[in-house]
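User: Design a sequence. Structure:
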């Protein structure tokens, strides 16, 4: 039994952004393709991030309100997710409330919010 193109489109449409990205990376590895982008977080599905930002769209900011009791774990998550140096992460944590990421998609901002809240931080997503 062959799978139709419509079934493939329906399946891909049901995937979340992170699942779709994982699938793309797996196919690139399987077929030996090099991705057209080189800097993670600055492109979406091979297109530059600026391509998807339309005039009049709100800019999304992730704001760290407090670190909670697990300050070191919050710093580790921030460094990994936002690609910060240790000193930069420490300065942001010491200056709470502080904007830790700007210009993310809503999905990426929510993912970052959930990661930080999982280690005890209080985070807010703002639209400007």
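Assistant: Done.
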């Amino acid at each position: 039994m062959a799978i139709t193109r419509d079934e493939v489109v329906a399946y891909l449409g049901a995937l979340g952004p992170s699942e779709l990205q994982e699938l793309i990376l797996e196919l690139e590895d399987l077929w030996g393709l090099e991705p057209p982008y080189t800097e993670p977080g600055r492109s979406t599905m091979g297109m530059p991030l600026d391509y998807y930002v339309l005039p009049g769209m709100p800019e999304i900011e992730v704001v760290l309100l407090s670190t909670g009791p697990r300050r070191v774990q919050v710093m580790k998550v921030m460094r990994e997710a936002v690609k910060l140096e240790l000193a930069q992460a420490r300065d942001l944590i010491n200056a709470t409330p502080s904007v830790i990421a700007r210009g993310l998609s809503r999905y990426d901002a929510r993912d970052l919010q959930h990661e930080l809240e999982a280690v005890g931080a209080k985070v807010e997503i703002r639209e400007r």
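The CA atoms of residues 69 and 120 lie 7 Å apart. Residues 37-43 have pLDDT under 50 and may be disordered.
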